[in-house]
Amino acid sequence: MKKSVIIGIVAFLVASVVFSYPVFWACCFAINLFAKVTGYTYQEANVVLFLYAQPVILAATAIIGFTYLLYQTVSKFKWWKLGLLALYSIPLWVNKAIMTFAHDRYWGIDMDEAFRRSMVDLKYQGGANMDEYVFLNFAIFVFGFLIVLGVNLFPLFLKPLRK
Prior knowledge:
By secondary structure, the protein is mainly alpha-helical. Helix content is 85%, strand content 0%. The chain has helices at 3-38, 42-75, 79-106, 111-126, 130-153.
């Protein structure tokens, strides 16, 4: 591995740890603001935004990206387009797993219970240390969400596959 790649990975990890607290508190402020505007409690706002809305947004963007690639593949068939479509089905399965987990674990129950379950899950995964909890929360609900969203929408930013 090149030295610049290793330096980049280390810099990314250090920046993630250093900036996770300010981003975490900024997110807490935004959630609190959302709660005040909508009339939800802080816990209910967390459930609505992160356990209900995020999986639905990810599923919708995955379907949009897959449909775009399917249209491009069918409009003028080429074998490499079919391969790209098959490769893109991997994010669809990742999104399916996210939706299934969220649906089975958190949907269809009281919002307070969903919040309690999510806190238990995060504290169990993050350990007793608050630093690990904050970083895990940031990694899943901010960084992880943005990565999956970017992968889902990536096909829309490709040049048209008409050639």
